[in-house]
Amino acid sequence: MEHALVDIRTCPAPKPDKEAFMIQLRLEQRACTESNQRLALKQLDDSGVVARYLEGDRTAFAELVERYQTRLLNFIYRTTGDRERAEDLVQETFIRVYRHLHRFDQSKKFSTWIYTISSNLAKNELRNRSRNPLVLFQALRRNGDSDQRPLEWEDNTYRPDDLFRKRHLRRTVEAAVAELPEHHRAVFVLREVEGKTYEEIAEITGCNLGTVKSRLNRARNRFAQIIAPLLD
Q1: Domain membership of residue 186 as a residue range
Q2: For an engineered disulfide with 158, which of 58, 131, 162, 175 has Cβ 3.0 to 4.6 Å away?
Q3: What pLDDT band is residue 47 in, cutting at 50, 70 and 90?
Q4: Burial class (CB in 10 A: 0-12, 13-18, 19+), 20
């Protein structure tokens, strides 16, 4: 039997499935809406994002995670010296934020609140250890006012031998910081690495302002005593 050849140019185009078309259209509209929402959230400060979440915008929580995930990971990692455990504690931090955000006092700074949670988790981790944690330091500011800004590390405009020297110095600093007592190390990292104000450190650690300044001063002095022989 011979089969007639069909000229596809003369065949009518298949009719689109109306239901599938509407589903696809809704998906595209939703994606567009979510994209616009994310863009709008990035224009807000933390308090604005928190307010949007409490008003029912679920995408706002993802924005908070994006803003703080890396910062908290670095903070906890420097405090505990264990990256895998730090990742677990960051996850636990956001779980607690998710559970208790409705009780957050919006007259306070969100950053201070979330750092308080992560700091408490890190301190609990250290208490449960039998070994001294290694605190990793990112920076060592030289010839600067210690009350102005967090410590900074490498300047890539330096010559290779300068970069090698500074990297060696960083390893020396890490070893020295690891010897600081836990309560001194905490304020030291919060101030010198995270750049927190004295008031924020006081709220995060639950200490009064005088205690924070006293501990930080002792930590700096002790740090200088420890590191001096290592730099000879």
Answers
A1: 134-232
A2: 162
A3: very high
A4: exposed
